[in-house]
Amino acid sequence: MQSYRYNSTLRNTFLVDIEAARELMIEVGLEEGFTSNNTIVISQFIDQMLNQLEEITSLN
Predict the structure, then answer these.
(1) Could you give the angle at which helices 2-32 and 37-58 cross, rounded to 10 degrees?
(2) CA geometry: angle at 34 spanning 47 and 15, to 5°?
(3) Is the pLDDT of residue 7 over 90?
(4) CA separation for the pair 20, 46 (Å, rounded)
(5) Average pLDDT for residues 24-33, to the nearest whole number?
(6) How far is Cα of residue 23 from the mean position of the Cα atoms in its chain?
(7) Closest Cα to residue 49, out of 6, 13, 8?
(8) Using CA atoms, how far apart are residues 23 and 15, in angstroms rounded to an integer?
(9) Taking phi first (over 0 means left), then psi (-120 to 50 degrees means alpha), and beta for anything else, what does residue 33 get?
(10) What are phi and psi of 36, to 5 degrees?
(11) Distance CA 54, CA 40 (A)
(12) Is the pLDDT of residue 3 over 80?
């Protein structure tokens, strides 16, 4: 039961962080272009967080 609560909290934290990074990526993309190095780095970071989220979700 405790593990579920921990995973749920961690999952929610990841979702908030992913959404914040997504908004930042869009903002940077609009300012610098969607193929700029900064936009791509943020996109790759989001991909890493999504992969970690998938690992957490699969533990339940």
Answers:
(1) 160
(2) 30
(3) no
(4) 10
(5) 98
(6) 10
(7) 13
(8) 12
(9) left
(10) -70, 155
(11) 21
(12) no
d(CA 48, CA 31): 23
Asked if residues 23 and 46 have their Cβ atoms less than 8 Å apart, the reply is no
Asked whether the beta carbons of 42 and 28 are under 8 A apart, the reply is yes
Q: What is the pTM of this model?
A: 0.84
Based on C-alpha coordinates, what's the Rg of the chain?
14
Which residue is listed with tokens 């997504």? 22
Task: Show the tokens assigned to 10.
Answer: 């961690």
For the segment 46-55, the average pLDDT, to the nearest whole number, is 94
Residue 4 reports pLDDT greater than 80: no
Q: Is the pLDDT of residue 6 over 70?
A: no
